[in-house]
Structure formats: C-alpha cells, structure tokens
Amino acid sequence: MAQVTLRRIVKEYEGGVQAVKGIDLDIADHEFVVLVGPSGCGKSTTLRMIAGLEEISAGDIAIGGALVNDIPPRDRDIAMVFQNYALYPHMTVYDNMAFGLMLRKFPKAEIDRRVKEAARILDIGMLLDRKPKALSGGQRQRVAMGRAIVRDPKVFLFAEPLSNLDAKLRVQMRTEIKKVHQTVKTTTIYVTHDQVEAMTLADRVVVMNHGVIEQVGPPQELYHNPATKFVAGFIGSPAMNFIPCRLEQSGSALQVQLPGGAALPVPQDRTARYQAHLGRELLFGIRPEHLTEVRPNDHRENMAVLEAVPEVVEPMGMETLAHFWIEGAEICARLDPATPAAPGRKLPLAADMAKMHLIDPKTNKVL
Amino acid sequence: MSATAARPSDVLPGLGRKIGSLRRERRWALVTAYISLIIAAIFMLGPPLYMLLTSLKTSAEIADLSRSPWSISEITFSNYAQILGDPMFRGFFYNSIIVTVLVVAITMVISVLAAFALARMRFFGSQVLATGVFLTYLVPDTLLFIPLYQIVGGLGLLNSIWGLVLVYPTLTVPFCTWIMIGYFASIPKELDEAALIDGANWMQMLTKIFIPVALPGIIAATIFAFTVSWAAFVYPTAFITQPDSMPLTIGVVSQLIRGDTFAWGQLMAGALLAALPPVIVYAFLMDYYIAGLTAGATKG
C-alpha cells in the first residue's frame, strides 16, 4: 500500500493535442480517490499514465515514494479493473485470478489461499471453475476485481468499471466496491464520468475538465463549496441552476436582482464577501433542492420567495421536479410530492439563500 | 385465460394474414436454399465420385466406352494394391508428408510471430509492412517460379525436397500472417493491458493469451498452409524432375502418364489416396475450430 504523487503531468499526442495539461495530485495511503469529469477531460489518460499503459510527455509519477516514469506496468505493483472486464476468455475464473500470481512465480499453496480468500470476499466461490462466457456482467466484474485483489498491490486502478452494467447492478456493485475497499484498504484511484458514483465512493473527488483539475476535495466539500461554475454544475443531480443576475445594494444589505424583476436578499454574513462585486453582472447559482415549495408557517432563515410558473412538472415519487424558464435560463425546483404543482399554474417558491452561489461569468470562478 | 378469449386474428384482423405470409416466405427461402445446396453438392461431389468409381474398375472396363462411366460391373482393388505396393509411390507420399509438415511448422512460427508484432507492437513502418506482406501474396506462383528456379538452382536445391521446403513458405507465410493479423487485431486491447499489468512480458502475452484466444484463427491458417503445400503443383513441376524427390501431386501424374498412355484406374486411385490426408486433417481440425472463443472476454 502506498501514496501516489503526480507532479506537473502532461500528456501530449502527436499533432500537439494535450489531453492532460500539467496536473498535480497527491493521493494518500489507503485513500479512495475518484477522478470524475465529462468524456475527453483527461481522467482516463491520467489513470492509464499511472498504470504505465500510456507514456507521460512531461512530469513525474511516484508510487510509494518511488519514481515510476520509466517503469513498465508489471513492475509498478498496481492492479487494474477495466470497463469491459478484460477477463482471459480461455481461462477459468480461478485461473484468471491466479494468472498474475503464477507469472510472479508464487508458490501453489499461496496462490490457492489468495484466490480462495478473494473469492470469499467477493462471494464468487461457486464460480471458480467457470469460464468468463458463462458469467453475467456483474459476476465478470467481480472476477475482474478478484484478479486485482489477489495480487495485493500497492494501488488499485479502476477504469469506469461499472459503465457496462445496468442501473440496478451498478448501484449494487458500487456498494460492493466500497465494501471491498473498507476491507482491504488498498489505495484506490477510480475513474468515472458518473458524479453519483464519484460522490458515493470517494474519500476525495478530483473533478477534471479539458485536461486540468478543476477542484479536489471530499464529496460534501465539492457539493457545498464548488470552486468553479463547472464543478457547481457537474456535481449534484439535477444540476445547479444558473440565472444571470446583477448584485445590488438594498439598504445596508445586498440583493440579487434577477431578470423579470425578482430581487432576492443576500444573507448578511455574505455581505463582506460579495461587496467588491457590487453592481456587476454575475450568475446566481442555486441547487434545485434549495428551491422548494413555500410551506405554511415557513419561517426558515434566509428564505426568499420567487414567483414561478412551471412549464413542465415531473413527479418522481419521493419528490416532484418543476421546470420553468427565467429569461432563457432553465430553472429546476425540487418540490415535496404533495405540492399541488401543475404546468401553467403560478407557484411561489422558497429559495434558501444561505445555500446560494455567485459566479463571475468572466472567470467562471465561484465568488 | 378464459375460454371465451378472442383469437388475435379476431381482435386484429390484419395480424393473422401477416403471420401466414411470413411463414410462407420462410418456407420459400428454405426450399430455395435446399435446391441450391443440392445442385452445389452434386456439382462438387461429381468429380470425386467419378474418381472413386473409376479407381474401382479394371482397365478393360474403363476402356469399354459402350458402358456408362457411372456404373461398375465388377469392383476391383487392384489399382489401389498396385499403387500402395509400389515403393516409389510410398516415396511420393513420404516426400509430401515431410515437405508439408516442415512447411506448416515454419509457416506457423513465422506468421504467428510476425502477425503478433504487426498487430500489436506499434513501431516505425508497421502499417506499411503489414500491407507489404499481403501484396507479396498477390503475385501468382505461375509468375514467380521462373526467378525462383534461378534462386533454387543457385542454391543447388533443384531435385531436392529441401528446395520445396524453402520455397513453399513464400506462398503460405504472407497469407497466414494476414489471417493472423486479423485475428489478433480482433482481440480486445484491454486483454493485453490486463496481461501487462498482471506481469506478462511480450512472449508470455503471446503464448498464454494470444495463441489460446486466437486458436480458431491459427487452425484456419494451419489448414491453409497444409492445403497449399500438400496440393502444390507448379513449383515441384518446375524444380523436381527425379522421381525419388517428387511429392505426390506430380509423382502420380508423371509416373502414370506415359506419353499418351493414361493408367486411368491407378491415376484415380493415386489421386484419391492423395486427397485423403487433407480430408482427415479437415475433419479432425474442424472439431477444434470453435468460433466465438472470445465470447466472454469483455462485455460480450
């Protein structure tokens, strides 16, 4: 087990296209770090460079304190789980898991002990004699994880391991992966484009976009205090609403002036933070879950009421999503399912201003 | 379901007719397929059957043009006995086996290694080389035998089976390499990456992953190399004139046709015996030719 360090890592392809533009990252021993971002953001390339499957154009990678820039994958003491499992089709489940240990000339008894132990952890003991083609998707993914576990490597690398599974199995395997990490505690780097996976699994989430790291932090930190507009919009589902606004003075306090006339008071404790941006055109960011129905006798602090006319109402069971538009910006509100919301009917909404964000549209930074 | 439930055709009047027409279409497709296959089978099996019948006749019966060539009045095995009893023919067989076994072995070693390198190792000129390998196969042996005669002669290998062992791979290696490039390329890249991370070097990756996974392709290439070297005719005709170095293909023809005298019974018996090994090889290897071996490697 070991820490992983990336220093100014660059990946440049022929023709000068940079997939990864000089990223720095420190991953602690036993940590579960998830790289998340849209396709083409460089997360998979970064993982493959850590694995040694992709050469780095510049920078340094260290695993367990040792520089591995020029060390082939087999000598980096890592194990990888691929999106499409990459099981050896001609070998049984047992041989698939034992293959790496056999190549490393482990004694037979030790191989047997490790394979059976991994099979026990993953609950695939009864599948050991089967070939991959006789397994379901979820079972194949377990075997792929088993192949990583038996090696007892310094680092686990997961490359979008759940993307090929159906939604239900994905949730189940997600829990499974977290359970395995809690058991074996190996340092884990996990790549996904699914922010829910990232949030649920990670000790720390690394949000990447266009080959750079936008923000690194624990899931709750990213959710509550996003650093950029990209992170604010990427983390959370449904995504955060962004409404063009102007920051104005209102007595001794500040207020957010929305197009269409609505003015929302900014909480007192933010006055100092936002004062410098007074009079500027900004983006007002608020999550759908902080834009709810007005409840009877609602005396929540920092509440602002916003009149809306939903155009689309989506009942989800445990909640209802209402969509409306303010000057071309689509806004989503998360309502209690008992709320009598209907398309075209006026609906007063309560904005929890303590959870608001202001974004500078020039720098895309959250203020 | 209740007993009074309406039949689908009552509810949706158009449906019954549609199903009927699909069934009729399917029946027609089957009938057409069977007729085509029967015609093809008759066409393909006619010559071997004619050979078999002729090989079982006496010379007198073969020469009797008043009878149908498709009938036999008296079955005789004398043609086979004469062929098999003649040490010279056993020599032809022996030569063919030696040449074929060596050519298949040489071909498979070279083409599996070459295909693996061309399919998986990115190096300068690998694409051009892969195309070049295939282009060499496009030059027919009827053109190549003249310059090759010079080369084989220069090496002092005329009238020697070793000349054939040297020359046949020029026919088999390019095509087998091409087939194997295709098979290796179809193996998911993640499989080699998984093997690399598991600790395999290139050779282990080839022997423990690629060869077992691409076995159907290797068998197909082996069958091809076997067929080409067993049935080669132009090169041995050009390079071999002495009977003791002749393979079966030219041995049978050169020894059983004397001027304008054709020993038809023995010719047919010899040709059938020569055709036997490929039939056995095909029948045996086909059992191992299991398509879809890669199913389950990845997503599936």
The rounded distance between the terminal residues' Cα atoms of chain A is: 39 Å
> Which structural class fits the helix and strand makeup of chain B?
mainly alpha
- In the CATH scheme, what's the topology name of the largest domain in chain A? Rossmann fold
Q: Could you say which structural class the secondary elements and strand pairing of chain A correspond to?
A: alpha+beta
Largest interface: A-B, 32 and 26 residues
Mean pLDDT of chain B: 82
Explain this structure.
The complex is a heterodimer of chains A (367) and B (300). In chain A, 25% of the residues lie in helices and 32% in strands. Chain A is built from nine helices and 21 strands. Chain A is elongated. The mean pLDDT of chain A is 88. Chain B has two domains: 8-55; 83-286, MetI-like fold (Orthogonal Bundle), CATH 1.10.3720. In chain B, helix 6 packs across helix 9 (169-185), helix 9 (169-185) packs antiparallel against helix 12 and helix 10 packs across helix 11 (202-213). With 300 residues, chain B is mostly helical. In chain B, strand 1 (257-258) and strand 2 form a beta hairpin. The model of chain B is unreliable at 1-6 and 290-300 (pLDDT under 50). At the A-B interface, strand 6, helix 2 and helix 4 of A face helix 10 and helix 11 of B. Chain B: Residues 93-285 form the ABC transmembrane type-1 domain. Chain B: Belongs to the binding-protein-dependent transport system permease family.
Topology:
The complex is a heterodimer of chains A (367) and B (300).
Chain A: E1 4-12, E2 18-27, E3 32-36, H1 43-51, E4 58-63, E5 66-67, E6 78-81, H2 93-103, H3 108-122, H4 137-150, E7 155-159, H5 167-184, E8 187-192, H6 195-201, E9 204-209, E10 212-217, H7 219-224, H8 229-234, E11 241-250, E12 253-257, E13 263-265, H9 271-274, E14 281-286, E15 291-293, E16 303-308, E17 312-315, E18 320-326, E19 329-335, E20 347-352, E21 357-359
Parallel strand pairs in A: 3-8, 3-9, 6-7, 7-8
Antiparallel strand pairs in A: 1-2, 1-4, 4-5, 9-10, 11-12, 11-14, 12-13, 14-21, 15-20, 16-20, 17-18, 18-19
Helix pairs in contact in A: 2-3, 2-4, 3-4, 4-5
Chain B: H1 8-11, H2 13-55, H3 59-63, H4 78-85, H5 87-120, H6 126-138, H7 141-154, H8 161-167, H9 169-185, H10 189-198, H11 202-213, H12 215-231, H13 234-239, H14 248-256, E1 257-258, E2 261-262, H15 264-286
Antiparallel strand pairs in B: 1-2
Protein name (chain A): Sn-glycerol-3-phosphate ABC transporter ATP-binding protein UgpC
Pfam families (chain A): ABC_tran, OB_MalK
Keywords (chain A): ATP-binding, Nucleotide-binding, Transport
